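---------- Forwarded message ----------

FYI, see the Dihydrofolate synthase/folylpolyglutamate synthase record below. Original note from H. follows.
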Amino acid sequence: MPDSDAVSPLASERPSLEQLSLKRWSLDQWLQHLETLHPVGIDMGLKRVSQVANRMGLLSRPIASCVITVAGTNGKGSTLAMIDSVARAHGQRVGTYTSPHLLRYNERVKIAGQEADDQLLLEGFEHVERARLQEPEISLTYFEAGTLCGLWCLARAELDLAVLEVGLGGRLDAINIIDADVAVVTTIAQDHANFLGTDIAQIGREKAGIFRAGHPAVLGSLILPESVAEYAHTLGAPVFRLGQHFQHDAFSNGLKTWRWQGQQADETGIVLDRLPDPGLPIDNAATALQALALTGLTLEQGRVQKALSSVILAGRMQWVGQWCLDVGHNPHAAEYIANYLPLPPGNGRQWGLIGMLNDKDIDGVIQALSARITDWVCVTLTGERGCQAQALSQRIIAQGGRVHFCADTPQAGADWLAKVLTLNDRVLATGSFFTVAALLARPLPTGAVSLDGDENEIR
């Protein structure tokens, strides 16, 4: 609960610097306040955020001894998580900034593997607000203010390595006010078309905007538009491409281990054998190792093995009992899920619980998942961007799928499944961060009964 003497973050008058120095808000109050600072939620560009960063002193010196920035349509989160885990296994003090979060805003900032506590974030937001309110006052979006807070937290943590995840695009994303020592692009696919367009080459150039002259650019996908490498070459950034400069032999020996070959900054070759399956895309694991090798870190096989065997990333092929939760929300991510989702045991069904936003390629996601899922539960996501369950249902039926239930919320969809799941059934919950977050916030049901017939199927 907020303190009784705290200034309301939704008050019509902006707080003065004096008020900020005297009144303390809760984290929830600060987050509500951030939503009121700018007329639109997304406003691409670096001018305003750079000005405030300068006032905060964030651009006067590096925020860490080394910075790795990760951009891409899919795979950013898993690549970052493996960079973090491997670097910490080698004794480095690592800080990360990611977005969005699933359950707690604190997830966005981690230092030495631990989420930032409320107090650190409150101090960071106060520093952002004081800098923003200096004359002339500068308007910031929710994401921009949060990014500046995250960077301030990392800058004061005396880090060996900071790993930053781009939120949207690359060139004009708030993260790009920080120069990367090593820049990574994971994959390129169509997403956020309202802001990045539908031209894959142009999207690639936007993502490549995180590259810096003379600093390594790591290309972490076998299929990238040539615009990515072309932009790196125009800058004189050394390019390290998956399949050419580094590669992996994933499970080719029939065992659940794999082999990585890469290059150090001086182009000396390095090989690591018998690496464990991290439960995340091996392309991204290979990319994480290449990025770390280019920082000058000497990778030791035992430490890498330990790190990859223990890496955890919530909401990415995350199993909770019979449930697999994945935040994938575009066709590229859905194809990966469909390829790697294991078959249910015995005669069990593979259910899909899906909730999506209207500005995503809904039909493309359904088409990709339909290779593995025929039985669906559709859920409504709230807000102006949320897609109604009935609209999802119509799209699934149009592609030949069976929709058994439409729910007003992800929780209500899980409650319905609790009545029909058998012990051999499995459920993929996917389509959005919002879908997965709602389900992670509650216990998930376990199958115990049989479903007789399809009388509850929507046709």
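H. also flagged this: The CA atoms of residues 78 and 313 lie 7 Å apart.
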